[in-house]
Design goal:
By secondary structure, this protein is α+β, with helices and mostly antiparallel strands. Helices cover 30% and strands 30% of the residues. It is built from three helices and eight strands, in the order E-H-H-E-H-E-E-E-E-E-E. Helix 2 packs across helix 3.
Length: 149
């Protein structure tokens, strides 16, 4: 059985503590702070999944799928590592975390449509290069699916 939880994990977790431009190379103090940040998110994921298991009267979750926007301030690799750490010795040990990256999409006033952004640090329309102040997608941190047994 697959359960679709409420879409806004960010409301549960709170705003990201870092900016999307933060880079977390392994073996640095910044990388360690990324792991701590993502560990708190992983622990919140565990809370949400546990609540969903209780609500659905399910024994365990085998897979959790999340969408992580490029502007969310979450480092997918760090979240994956943190999730493994957080689930050890818990009822969710062995649960797989699937992370779907969400590219940045902006509203282009010139084209009057949604367009991909050039890059996370360049929110210009890929069709006409017009800068945009309206991000349509790319900030999310959502649980989109929980596979339960």
């Amino acid at each position: 059985m697959v359960v679709h939880p409420p879409p806004l994990l960010r409301e549960y977790v709170g705003e990201a503590a870092r900016t999307p431009d933060d880079d977390c190379p392994p073996s640095t103090a910044l990388y360690n702070s990324c792991i701590v940040h993502e560990l708190s998110i992983a622990m919140s994921l565990l809370d949400v999944v546990t609540e969903m298991l209780i609500r659905e009267n399910a024994a365990r979750a085998s897979r959790v799928t999340v969408e992580v926007g490029e502007l969310s301030g979450v480092v997918p690799e760090a979240l994956q590592t943190a999730f493994i750490t957080a689930t050890q010795n818990s009822d969710l040990a062995g649960c797989t975390l699937i992370i779907r990256p969400v590219p940045v999409t902006v509203w282009c006033d010139r084209c009057q449509s949604e367009r991909p952004a050039h890059a996370t640090n360049d929110l210009a329309c890929t069709a006409c290069s017009q800068l945009s102040a309206t991000v349509i997608r790319g900030k999310e941190l959502d649980i989109v699916e929980i596979a339960v047994e």
